[in-house]
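Please predict the structure of the following assembly.
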Amino acid sequence: MRTIWALFKKELRLYFVSPIAYGLIAGFLIITGFFFYFLLSMFLESTARSMMMAQYYRQMPPPVNVNLELIRPLISNFAFLGLIMGSMITMRLIAEEKKLMTIELILTSPVTTFQLVMGKFLAGFALFCIMLLPTSLYFIILDFFGDPEITPIIIGYIGLLLIGGVFTAIGLMVSSFTENQLIAVALTLSISVLLWVVDWPVSYITQPTVSAIVSYIALPAHFDDFTKGVLDIKHISYFLSLIILSLYLTYRSLESLRWRT
Amino acid sequence: MIDVHNVSKKFGTKQVLFNISFAVTKGEIVGFLGPNAAGKTTTMRIITCYLPATEGTVTVAGYDVFDQSLDVRRNIGYMPENPPLYYDMSVYSYLDFVARIKGIQGKNIKKRIDAVMERVSITNVRDRICGRLSKGYRQRVGLAQALIHNPPVLILDEPTSGLDPKQIVEVRQMIKSLSADHTIVISTHILPEVKLTCERVLIINEGRIVAEGTLEHLTQKIKGKEKFQVEVAGPKEDIIRVLKSIPGVEGATIEKTEMNNKHQIMLESDVKSDVRKDIARTIVENKWDLFELRNVSMTIEEIFMKYTAGEKVYGEEK
């Protein structure tokens, strides 16, 4: 445990003593801020329009649901951004150690592979959480001026954390395959995006088993319920098993560093 | 302390180590000598559990590198050729991290770091960023990293490479000072280094140990003959004739003749009899002028060349 903590602290320190963490967080906030502003303007405009329509026809204005029309798409956008950010957070985690040969220090120290994987994963995940933290401001603003339901937002964030864990784990795994960070980020993006879009052609697949598998694998279908504020054990276990699978493969890949050749 | 037994290593189809065996006893400093790409680093990496051997066994402090890898790693301090530094971290936080992953108890960490920084004299750069340090300081931080958990065994891969002469001397002295309570293996291709720091030498070439022993021992083994250089003034032919007639002297050749009939002569004799006093007496008795008489010992470069080039001379078998 102490070793994991030491590795975790070192990794997080390396993020914050270099511009990496600040650059990533700033980038994430700029884009989420843009989405927030853009979606909020759209929401306000459509609300205003339906109010005007109601006045014109002398009817009751239709109920507007800020959760449905603003918060849901916003959280979905965050999730996709998390995909991109996750790959950038994790690309250096192992590839850089290999490049700089600091891996030689780690592998000749009394550190087990499990401790190494956990330390690195938790550090990457922690940075993801730190990055996500300031976005709560958007919802505080909404709560201040409007009246959104809080529970779905919290559940949405649980979903974001889970999906962040998946992207971090995939990125860590890919980072252990190579010593080139560019290859790591490119491959991580490919895998994550593929997970995102794999069910798009599902309506063209005639074989029922294949289409069932494909639509089970796809990420957004599992994430959707979280944005609706539905907490389902089925989806949680999907995310957790993806995380565990990726971490297991990272473990194997790191072991093979020693025994390969 | 270190026992390497019949170790071979293949990278794919390329074999880099052939059946290497040697042992290092407690408190010894052993120099690992060989040209580039001879297999020095690979051997060290096998000892430090970074790479597995294809065949053979290695034990360090009684632990097997394969089965009790974690115990071995606890007992070894390893300084790779390029110090494994995180360039964005400060020296202190780097050593703090290393101390923690080496398993030092939290309350002892500060004490250990201070002691180690003192020992390799880097206390003055404790808050500097590793990436901004000069090569010499990086090397020392690398050494500090290997020493932090006070391991009984130290493996240092070319600890003086890339340093300036002053730093080289400092690092060597540091290593010497460590020898009291550590078993040390140093690899190098800088020959005088071995002479200055090591008690015993292993010469490795193309993945094989070609010689092993103390420096004097190795010198004797390949020398076979003692050589003397004599500088003497007098009639050339007479000098050669008389010197050759001294019992024990096997050859005399004039290397150079200067003005005033002063000759530099190279004499060869067998190792057993010390003929220096006979040479001196003979010259004086003949009333020639003796300017110089000295033993020409083999340089370590010659030894090295002899062992790593051409025929393979094997050191003593264990």
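The mean pLDDT of chain A is 91. The first helix of chain A runs from residue 2 to 17.
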